[in-house]
Design goal:
Layout (H helix, E strand, L loop, with lengths): L1 E3 L3 H8 L5 E6 L2 H13 L6 E6 H6 L3 H7 L8 E8 L4 H12 L9 E6 L6 H4 L7 E5 L5 H14 L2 E2 L2 H10 L4 H15 L7 E2 L2 H6 L10 H8 L6 H10 L4 H18 L9 H7 L7 H10 L3 H19 L4 H17 L3
Parallel strand pairs: 1-6, 2-5, 2-6, 3-4, 4-5, 7-8
Length: about 350
């Protein structure tokens, strides 16, 4: 089965218990991850989570089936969550499909796969498109309008009343990342003591009080310094990252979001196009025109194809090495900036 980011929930509901493998792919890794989290939260008994990396599945394809058929130490329920890049899960999924069809995997634990830089046209996705026991969903980079609507839905779910302008402000502050936006909404609800039983109206003042991201202490100056190859600015931005305790994973997510935006824009840009008009026509926020335009000149084609999975790998490394995340991020940003500085 196939779905999009807008109808995956309905497709999963229609499939019911028949669907045992969920393959969510596309350029919006944040949206795919958030969707997977919602589906897991709706399981009658999610139980223990088993995390598997793409590298693990690539080196040992049989592990996916082994985990789907195994039991936990105490016999509890479990589910499998794999984060992969590209086709890393292909062989493991092919093995799962073969064994399920042979009746050797019956009532296996549900499997959720977030596949960064894969698409619904990938070999992995094609394994599942015609199956009734699997769901493929494609997630495209979100726009401001859709994330603003998502923010309002998040707020409604926790008893917050937001007007359109505040919802848009939160969407922008989260750099269109629904996971960061959810974090901001949750903090705002906690600050105002809001709940479904006692709903509260939020305003910009309350949002500022919880320390929401702002231009001077947000992620984007650091992201722009790296992707624009501004080697003279980068040391100062790295110092600021430490001084204001920017979350390394948040910075990585902002990097992924900008890279995904560039990957969408780059194929549309034609030689001789007026950059300002091109960015305006494609919905780029006017305050970001200079940075996005410059980065489009430095990152295109094969360079973006290499950058996107590299950032996904960085994200996974930061999650797995929280104690050294800041150092790992600083090193990767420096390498990216040096590469960008040499290319125009």
């Amino acid at each position: 089965m196939k779905a999009t980011q807008r109808d995956y929930a309905q497709a999963a509901k229609r499939a019911g218990e028949r669907c045992r493998l969920f393959f969510f792919c596309g350029q919006d890794e944040a949206g795919a991850s958030a969707a997977i989290a919602k589906l897991i939260a709706e399981l009658p008994d999610a139980g223990e989570r088993v995390d598997i990396s793409g590298a693990d599945l690539k080196s040992d394809p049989s592990r996916l089936v082994d985990e789907a058929r195994s039991t936990s130490l105490f016999g509890d329920s479990r589910h499998i969550l794999a984060r992969v890049s590209g086709e890393e899960a292909h062989d493991a999924m092919a093995s799962w499909c073969e064994l399920v069809d042979r009746g050797e995997v019956t009532d296996g634990w549900p499997i959720f796969i977030v596949a960064t830089s894969a698409t619904d046209k990938s070999r992995s996705a094609k394994l599942l498109l015609k199956r009734e026991d699997a769901l493929v969903a494609i997630f495209y980079p979100p726009d401001l309008r859709s994330v603003t609507a998502d923010v309002r839905a998040m707020a409604d779910a926790v008893g917050l009343r937001l007007d359109g302008s505040l919802a848009e402000t939160i969407a922008r502050a989260a750099n269109l990342d629904v996971r960061l936006a959810q974090s901001e909404v949750d903090k705002l609800a906690l600050y105002l003591d809001a709940s479904l039983q006692t709903p509260k109206r939020a305003d910009l003042s309350a949002f500022n009080d919880i320390g929401a991201s702002a231009e001077e202490d947000g992620f984007m100056p650091l992201v722009n310094a790296a992707l624009s190859g501004e080697l003279s600015k980068l040391p100062g931005e790295l110092t600021r990252m430490r001084e204001v305790s920017l979350n390394p994973v948040g910075v990585a997510l902002a990097l992924e979001r900008r890279a995904a935006q560039l990957a969408v824009l780059s194929p549309k840009l034609r030689r001789g196009d007026d950059m300002k008009q091109f960015l305006k026509m494609n919905g780029v926020f006017f305050k970001e025109h200079r940075e996005v335009g410059d980065q489009l000149m430095r990152w295109n084609g094969g360079r973006l194809e290499r950058l996107v999975p590299r950032l996904a790998d960085l994200h996974r490394s930061l999650l797995a090495n929280s104690q050294t995340a800041e150092l790992l991020l600083a090193r990767e940003l420096t390498q990216i900036a040096r590469y960008a500085a040499a290319r125009r």
